[in-house]
Design brief:
The protein is of the alpha+beta class. The protein is built from 15 helices and 13 strands. Helix 2 runs antiparallel to helix 3 (227-246), helix 5 (306-317) crosses helix 6 (319-327) and helix 7 (331-339) packs across helix 9 (362-370). The chain is globular, with a radius of gyration of 28 Å. The structure holds zinc ion.
Length: 466
């Protein structure tokens, strides 16, 4: 049987977080009443003229420099012609031959090295309006009794990032997509929230025999808005294509839908013709020529990006925890505590397991953590530290009970009350230790020091085994 190599590329769309739309002054507001943010430009009234949003252009360049893209000296808006009820102009203003951002790359850190993914281009366009299908149980056009159009979304600035077909597995595609999302969010150019539809991805998948040159027909899965389903859809496409190639079936290059219920892809049922969008330069807009000073200012103002932070934290807490901290945005909390003298592992654990706190409270929290206070005191300190300044002295007196003589009778009674669990532990299931720790914590009203309790429990359970 042949050794098949998946070839995957992504087209990622992110709604830019500007105050107004791409070519008019209508406000962008997620969740506003239907058709409350419209005007002659975004409703495509005859004679209405577009005016580009300067901030959207800046945001696109900002992402472009973060992705090491070549920034165009001369970029051109183009009309992409097609008909759809949610596109009243009959064309979308996009960029085609001369996008704002050309070749670039994103380097994804992994435990064993780096995965470099080429960026083919990143361009700016306007989103279409939103069609809402009513009357059907599924919310899809099939089975709906009517379809309504909400023009609030029409004209939202949309950044499209196209990768090279450099990805080789669903996991790799997801790693890339998560890092790209995190980068976009940290740059402040988009909320990039899949569940709100402000981040969507089209996925292109084909397979070829390892070592084979060139590409076989690819399947495009459009408008995916869940990391889980993107991963599953890629795996389903690989499975189905390998089966088809091995059965010597001819594959067609086409658009597919992923059905989570059957975990299979089926050919998209609409009758879209071959992609003949008859692109031509938008005659109502002049080309964009970003000044070199602007590009340099944006490049110079880039924050430390997530990939670099993962690499910087890796020696302190290991790769897995460094990625987790950065992916959840908890690394800054951990850094604040570490800077106040809490050791890095403890800082990372606290940052991952506790809520946000005001940066000015880092010193007091660090003192409280180091003093090993009761869990209850720590809970109270963190709850308050989220919204107001705290004083460490209010908590430091509430040290956790680590006195073995005081804990001994509690531990003895917990062990005596749970002979079954003691047997289970003795039988080798040492993971059940947490159960005993929990019981002791409950008996002591959360005042026991869990580290001391764990150690004592382990000793007593070992003794009872002998
Ligand atoms: Zn408008």
């Amino acid at each position: 049987m042949a050794d098949w190599e998946p070839v995957i590329g992504l087209e990622v769309h992110a709604h830019l977080k500007t105050r107004t739309k791409m070519f008019c002054r209508c406000a962008l507001e997620y969740g506003a009443g239907e058709n409350t943010h419209t005007c002659p430009v975004c409703l495509a009234h005859p004679g209405a003229l577009p005016v580009p949003n300067e901030r959207a252009i800046e945001y696109t360049i900002k992402l472009g420099v973060a992705l090491d893209c070549e920034i165009a000296e001369h970029a051109v808006f183009a009309r992409k012609n097609y008909f759809y009820p949610d596109l009243p102009k009959g064309y979308q203003i996009s960029q085609y031959e001369q996008p704002l951002c050309g070749r670039g790359r994103l380097v994804v850190p992994t435990a064993d090295g780096e995965e470099e993914v080429g960026i083919v281009r990143a361009h700016l366009e306007e989103d279409a309006a939103k069609t809402v299908h009513a009357g059907g149980a599924t919310g899809r056009s099939v089975g709906a009794t009517s379809s309504l159009v909400d023009f609030n979304r029409g004209g939202t600035p949309l950044l499209e990032i196209v990768t090279a077909p450099d990805l080789r597995s669903a996991d790799q595609a997801l790693r890339f997509l998560r890092l790209l999302r995190q980068t976009i969010v940290e740059l402040g150019v988009s909320d990039a929230e899949m569940e709100k539809g402000t981040l969507r991805a089209d996925v292109n998948v084909s397979v070829r025999e390892r070592g084979e040159e060139g590409f076989r027909p690819r399947w495009e899965i459009k408008n995916m808005n869940s990391f889980t389903f993107i991963g599953r859809a890629i795996e389903a496409a690989i499975r189905q294509q390998v089966a088809a190639h091995e059965a010597d079936e001819t594959l067609e290059q086409s658009t597919y839908d992923y059905d989570p219920d059957t975990d299979r892809l089926t050919v998209h049922r609409s009758k879209e013709e071959a992609e003949d969008y008859r692109y031509f330069p938008e005659p109502d807009l002049v080309p964009v020529e970003p000044p070199a000073e602007l590009v340099e200012r944006l490049r110079g103002g880039l924050p430390e990006l997530p990939a670099a932070r993962i690499r910087r934290l890796e020696p302190l807490v290991g790769f897995a925890q460094a990625s987790e901290l950065v992916a959840t945005g908890n690394d800054r909390k951990a850094e604040l505590l570490a800077a106040e003298g809490v050791d890095w592992r403890a800082s990372a654990n606290v940052a991952m397991n506790r809520g946000d706190f005001l940066p000015e409270n880092a010193g007091a929290l660090a003192a409280i953590i180091r003093a090993n206070v009761t869990r209850e005191a720590l809970d109270e300190a963190f709850a308050k530290a989220a919204t107001e300044p705290i004083d460490a002295d209010d908590y430091l007196a509430r040290a956790a009970v680590g006195d073995e003589a005081a804990l001994e009778p509690v531990i003895a009674s917990v062990l005596a009350a749970n002979p079954g669990q003691v047997e289970t532990y003795r039988g080798g299931k040492e993971g059940i230790l947490g159960f005993f720790v929990g019981q002791v914590m409950r008996e002591t009203g959360g005042k026991a020091d869990p580290k001391v309790v764990s150690r004592m429990l382990r000793e007593r359970l070992r003794l009872s085994r002998n």
